[in-house]
UniProtKB/TrEMBL annotation:
Annotated ranges, domain Amidohydrolase-related: 53-402
InterPro entries in the cross-refs: Amidohydro-rel, Metal-dep_hydrolase_composite, Metal_Hydrolase, Metallo-dep_Hydrolase, OTAase-like
Coiled coil region boundaries: none
Name of the featured protein: Amidohydrolase family protein
Pfam families assigned to the protein according to its UniProt record, in alphabetical order: Amidohydro_1
CDD domains xrefs: Met_dep_hydrolase_A
Domain of life: Bacteria
Amino acid sequence: MTALLLRSGTLLDVETGDRSHADLLCADGRIAEIGPGLRAPEGARTVELAGATVLPGLIDAHVHVTAATADLGALPAWSPSYATAHAARIMSGMLDRGFTTVRDASGADFGLADAQAEGLLRGPRLMFCGKALSQTGGHGDSRPRGTRVHDGHQCCAGLGRVADGVDAVRAAARDELRKGAHHIKVMAGGGVASPTDRIDSTQYSLDELRAVVEEAEAANRYVAAHAYTARSVSRALRAGIRSIEHGNLIDESTVAEFREHDAFLVPTLVTYWALKTEGREFGLPENSWRKVDEVLDAGLRALERAHRGGVRIVYGTDLLGGMHRHQNEEFRIRGEVQQPLDVLRSATSTAAELLGMSGEIGTLRPGAVADLVVLDGDPLSDIAVLADPARIRHVVQNGAVV
């Protein structure tokens, strides 16, 4: 048995908000026991915490670990081995920032997930969707106007694949599921980083969206949709999509639809701030940079509207290129409109629920996977302590200090 004893920590139960001063024993990758004065098994490593806060490992539910540049149109020309080298560096940084699980929202594949699980590269547990499904000219179609050929081979490093029509989107969804996708991603509206669409456009017909949902549900998986406007979000929710990514331009009627369809919202506010301030430095094309203002100021208002309306909100960042280093800044931004415990739940227990891993991750309960963050400071008093990775003392993954 491999064991780790964290002694004299302040354990934070994210479900209740309660704190307890206790020891925490990890054994064989799981949380084995919590309580005062626990005895370390023979051969166990003991770490004295002196009252430091212990949280579940953090979950970021919207990342792109292969997006080492903000010029997404350049990625398909990269060598897969070159993209993998970048992804390994990006994932290692995420783990250092306290994120022990991430959900990739297009780009990562089974190879990266398997490499992480087997210990071949250092990083968070990776839930992947493969390539996002996009209509011709949609948010996942990275071709400029003058380019006709689209190479959708699985080894290309791009984030999207083009599929048009009900039969084609069914085949594309089945192909990603065949390769082990944990969820399917569709582009249901326009975006910032795509060259030929408008942010206020809707994308895919309702029949196409419903076909993707049917295929995912048949495989006991779910669909996440990129969508900004109230109209595109509403269409996605009516089609049965479980997770809306971004949602910056939703209105009050959309909030009611989230509750009606029991769906999740994954805002990604930090990426717009980062794209506006340094996006061009990291490759964001000028025409994409000019789109940022359309969603930048609206994002915080949408978050406040969704929070007030009781929508289940999950932590996401969507950062690109050299901007991945701002991953924790999302905590500070959300703290402007949400209480610290709500923000913390979005990156732990609520995120675990979206991923279908409630009780496995995002909790300190015995029996859960021993993914933990040891923090100097109290995030319930000031959520901004999580925005500073320097305040993270230890990261524990599968019961080992990493």
